[in-house]
Amino acid sequence: MGSFSVSFKIAVVLFLSVLVVSLTFVNGDIRHNIPTTLKPSKPVTVRLDTSFRGNATDLNDTDPRVQRTVKGWEPEQISLSLSANHDSVWISWVTGEFQIGDNVKPLDPKTVRSVVRYGVRKFHLRHRAKGHSLVYSQLYPYEGLQNYTSGIIHHVRLTGLKPNTIYYYRCGDPKIGAMSDVYSFETMPVSGPKSYPRIGVVGDLGLTGNTTSTMDHMMSNHPDLILLLGDATYADLYLTNGTGADCYSCTFKNTPIHESYQPRWDYWAR
Fold it and tell me: Which of 77, 57, 66, 99 is nearest to 264 (CA)?
């Protein structure tokens, strides 16, 4: 009898838990048939073009898509990412050229400032934010391996943004006339029972003939946010001289250390 009583109580608790989860309270009313993870709505996406398949060969150094197209200290490799708070985003970019060789000299991050001008009107960017910059280097303690040092990497955080709003921005250093074109982004909507952000998830993009077409396909579905899960360049499958292989340990058995070809990160961001 005791066992039956305990089982009955557990069953009642589970039933009530499911009942509470199945109902949504909005302004004191109980509304039914609202899409949930238990009964998700049918996804509506653009069909993938199957002709993309079979082009997963790594892009080489001479491919037009990986070339630097800006001059001087003009920004390149511009990207946006979510911040820790719902009302802020990070804007990042690179100025200056990377170096690779035996004797590389890192650029001075103080050479160029990190500034973003932004606003809700394209031709009136009345807000201004400053950030910080750094230089990344990959140096090897072995003779014959090529060292790498990046351009100046800038990070600026925009705060106090309104949800579900289009903002326009330019980044760079206005004092030396090295500013980007005007770009735009839309902030995420406020979370709620009527808010269903469209989120794309992609991983193992690599740096191949399929990388751009994959991203273009995802953008054709108009996502609010894209999560990049990693494995973007496979720079660790290359020697410092740019020689690559499908299997590093199989092909390069005699290297003194696991090398990588860091310029592929610059190529990918371009």
Answer: 66
